[in-house]
UniProtKB/TrEMBL annotation, chain A:
InterPro entries: DEP_dom, G-protein_gamma-like_dom, GGL_sf, RGS, RGS6/7/9/11, RGS6/7/9/11_DHEX_sf, RGS_DHEX, RGS_sf. Residues 474-493 are annotated as: Disordered. This is Regulator of G protein signaling 9b. It comes from the Eukaryota. Pfam families: DEP, G-gamma, RGS, RGS_DHEX. Residues 305-420 form the RGS domain. GO terms for biological process: G protein-coupled receptor signaling pathway; intracellular signal transduction; negative regulation of signal transduction; regulation of G protein-coupled receptor signaling pathway. One of its GO terms (cellular component) is plasma membrane. Gene3D superfamilies: 1.10.1240.60, Regulator of G-protein Signalling 4, domain 2, Transducin (heterotrimeric G protein), gamma chain, Winged helix-like DNA-binding domain superfamily/Winged helix DNA-binding domain. The keyword Protein biosynthesis does not apply. The keyword Magnesium does not apply. One of its GO terms (molecular function) is GTPase activator activity.
From TrEMBL, chain B:
InterPro entries: RGS7BP/RGS9BP. It comes from the Eukaryota. One of its GO terms (biological process) is negative regulation of signal transduction. Belongs to the RGS7BP/RGS9BP family. Keywords: Membrane, Signal transduction inhibitor, Transmembrane, Transmembrane helix. The chain crosses the membrane at residues 221-243. The lineage of its organism: Eukaryota, Metazoa, Chordata, Craniata, Vertebrata. This is Regulator of G protein signaling 9 binding protein.
Length: 493, 244
């Protein structure tokens, strides 16, 4: 196409996965419709007239199987692909774009309505088509078409007079044609829009992913660039590139996939139901951060690795509860404080660092953590000029400590056993089509992120208010019980 | 008065563009012929002439700073409608041009068996019978070879492209400020026609049929009820007459 329509193009015509359309169109279909060597055509008998050039599904499948020397099953799926892309349309049951290997009739689509890579389907045309349908018979639009029409009326409002006028004109121009031709044209147009604006719940053959902004067929790397890359730049870099043996990396990947494959909503079933598919949000409400009873899948994920446990807010709560019982909550509190320092606002950083030092690191601090001497020295030195990552070494040390020690004990603990016992396993939800429609209509926006943030802050405040377990209190309690008292700690500042 | 002229001119352009689309849908099908291509060319020429005249009118009016607010709003509406028409025409012209590549008249065996039997002559006649407001005589292009026609077409497409670009450059119409005045739904034109067409289509749309059935059902019920009430009234009056 030599003429570039730069202003209206917006670079949207590069839809790479649609490159197959040209092969299908020019090659297969033109051979198929050849009156001598193509698929056998017959007359379609209607009430008052007959229309030629109808083909049966079984003929299509037989012709494809014969031409490409493939099995009937493959011929049928190839035929279904042709119908799904819009090159052939069914005359009965026009919404199901499949090839039925029986006597059901199909017809070739006119080239004007063939899908093409360089012509994206315009919403203006869709609006005109819907308006035309409404002119022909008022109220004939289905629910989803009605919704689309209203939506288009809202955002294409400036063109609406034109759309209504053009619909009327196209309708009038159509009336000039002979009745059988008009019926055929209506069927053609209807088939075109079933392909490109599929009814809800159907899979579209036109799903091509994202639009590309550059032409994927254009030359990207010029020759000089290539020379530069191969002889000058890459060799110098390659000695610095970190290398991992593929056996190791692939082994890690395989291990990850085997552990997580039942938890992936694409590979395994999402209980109770995938909200993106059924529009039912119970999956999200059951898996919220502050939920009382977690789901079984979630609890299972905590056993995969310590990171999973900590990343999940509910898991972290459970772990915190366990540590509270064991009176070793200061490790987790220190880790959380470091995270807060790393990810928090820059304004209060030095205060935060000081607070953490006083609470966890100073000699005789109320929640003193046990890290080795070198790390402690390095951290204290760094705290003279605090920055975001000043506590990184200490945090890593504590993390490894928790992972090697507390995590194992947590997994064997009563707390975890109770949580696992109480975890719920939701039933799979089965929706009928009508219920799915209703779900789609009852979609509501989720909680605003501002509200969620406020809830988090409130929770944090509550946690802080409940008070950290003070080592002095613990020690005094122990001494009251008659155990050996350690040397009295210095008075609290 | 100039507004009315613009409006009628735009309406005619819309009709010609609609006819062009119907003709374009026949290209590459079994009724594609030299005659169809010729009709396409003539319709295209007419559309372009109308478009040029319209463009000139609308641009000159909208560049007139002294235009009152109400008229300006109307002009902007017409402007948006006109530019949409042009875009539709441009898209159709590009499609016809591309399809001419694949379906050349020399090799008529590849024309797709689409089931269409008549040509687009009636539609073309409708398009060409539209009044020519410009009154200028159109130069009759010679019935040349296909290649010559293709190069002419290429030129014409780029002309329309330039027209659209020029329009955008010369007048700045803020599309989000333009509000449509017409109805949301186009009024049904002729109800008898739809009934006969319905006989031709093989499977009627499901919700329409369901609504029809439901409506008939409820209508039947109402009739039965009415009949029962009438019968009761008749019986009561008869009994009153007998026993009085």
């Amino acid at each position: 196409m030599t003429i570039k329509n730069a202003m209206r193009d917006h670079g949207q015509r590069y839809r790479p996965r649609m490159a197959c359309l040209k092969k299908v169109g020019s090659a297969v279909l033109l051979e198929m419709q050849d009156p001598k060597t193509g698929v056998k055509s017959q007359l379609q008998r209607l009430v008052i007239t007959t229309i030629p050039h109808a083909i049966t599904g079984e003929d299509i499948v037989a012709w494809l199987a014969n031409k490409f020397n493939i099995s009937a099953e493959e011929g049928r799926s190839l035929g279904t692909m042709l119908v799904a892309l819009g090159y052939i349309y069914p005359l009965q049951d026009h919404k199901r774009l499949v090839v039925k290997p029986d006597a059901s009739l199909y017809r070739f689509q006119t080239p004007y309505f063939w899908p093409a890579q360089q012509w994206p389907v315009e919403d203006t045309d869709y609006a005109i088509y819907l308006a035309k349908r409404n002119i022909r018979k008022k109220g004939i639009l289905e629910l989803y078409e009605q919704e689309q029409y209203n939506h288009l009326h809202k955002w294409m409002n400036h063109k609406w007079d034109f759309i209504v006028m053009q619909a009327k004109e196209q309708y009038r121009a159509g009336k000039e044609r002979k009745k059988p031709d008009r019926a055929v044209f209506d069927c053609q147009e209807r088939a075109y829009w079933v392909v490109h604006r599929p009814p809800p719940g159907t899979v579209s053959g036109m799903d091509y992913g994202l639009d590309r902004l550059i032409d994927p067929n254009a030359e990207e790397v010029t020759e000089t660039d290539l020379i530069f890359l191969t002889f000058l730049w890459l060799p110098s870099l390659s000695c610095f590139l970190p290398r991992v043996k593929s056996s190791v990396s692939i082994g890690a990947l395989v291990k990850f996939v085997t552990t997580h494959k039942n938890h992936d909503p694409f590979l395994a079933q999402c209980l109770p139901s995938n909200p993106w598919v059924t529009d039912d949000v119970s999956y999200w409400t059951l898996n919220m951060a502050n939920v009382e009873i977690p789901t079984k899948m979630r609890v299972e994920r905590w056993t995969f690795s310590f990171v999973e446990l900590l990343e999940d807010p509910r898991g972290r709560d459970d772990f915190r509860f366990f540590l509270k019982k064991e009176f070793s909550g200061e490790n987790l509190a220190f880790w959380e404080g470091c995270e807060d320092l790393k990810w928090g606002a820059a304004a209060g950083m030095s205060e935060k660092a000081q607070h953490i030092y006083k609470t966890f690191l100073a000699r005789g601090a109320p929640r003193w953590i046990n890290i080795d001497g070198t790390t402690m020295e390095a951290t204290v030195r760094g705290l003279k000029h605090p920055h975001r990552y000043v506590l990184d070494a200490a945090q890593t040390h504590i993390f490894m400590l928790m992972k090697k020690d507390s995590y194992g004990r947590y997994l064997k603990s009563q707390v975890f056993k109770d949580t696992t016992k109480n975890a719920i396993n939701p039933e799979e939800q089965k929706f009928t089509d009508a219920q799915l429609d209703q779900n789609a209509r009852n979609r509501r926006p989720s909680l605003s992120p501002i509200a969620i943030r406020q809830m988090e802050l409130e929770q944090k405040a509550k946690l802080a208010a409940s008070g950290p377990v003070d080592i002095t209190q613990v020690m005094s309690k122990l001494s009251k019980q008659g155990k050996d008292a350690p040397p009295p700690p210095p008075p609290k500042k | 008065v100039c507004c009315i002229l613009c409006k009628t001119s735009l309406k005619i352009l819309d009709e010609v563009v609609a006819c062009y689309r119907h003709l374009a849908s026949c290209v590459g099908g079994c009724t594609d012929s030299l005659q169809l291509r010729d009709e396409l060319r003539q319709t295209r020429d007419k559309a372009q002439k109308l478009a040029a005249a319209n463009c000139h009118h609308l641009t000159s009016h909208l560049r007139d700073k002294s235009l009152p607010e109400e008229q300006r709003k109307e002009m902007e509406l017409l402007w948006v409608a006109f530019s949409s028409s042009l875009e539709l025409l441009h898209a159709d012209m590009c499609k016809v041009f591309n399809m001419g590549d694949i379906f050349s008249l020399a090799n008529s065996a590849v024309f797709v068996q689409t089931g269409i039997q008549g040509g687009g002559s009636e539609v073309a006649a409708r398009a060409l019978s539209m009044p020519d407001l410009n009154q200028a005589q159109s130069p009759v292009l010679p019935e040349g070879l296909e290649t010559q026609e293709r190069s002419t077409m290429e030129q014409e497409i780029s002309q329309v492209d330039h027209m659209i670009t020029d329009m955008e450059m010369k007048v700045n119409v803020l599309r989000w400020m333009v509000e449509s005045r017409g109805p949301q739904y186009a009024e049904p034109l002729n109800s008898t026609d739809s009934a006969s067409l319905a006989l031709l289509s093989m499977d009627e749309e499901q919700p329409g049929a369901e609504h029809e059935a439901a409506r008939h059902h409820s209508q039947m019920l109402m009739m039965l009820l009415l009949l029962a009430v009438i019968l009761l009234a008749a019986a009561l009056s008869v009994s009153v007459v007998i026993f009085s």
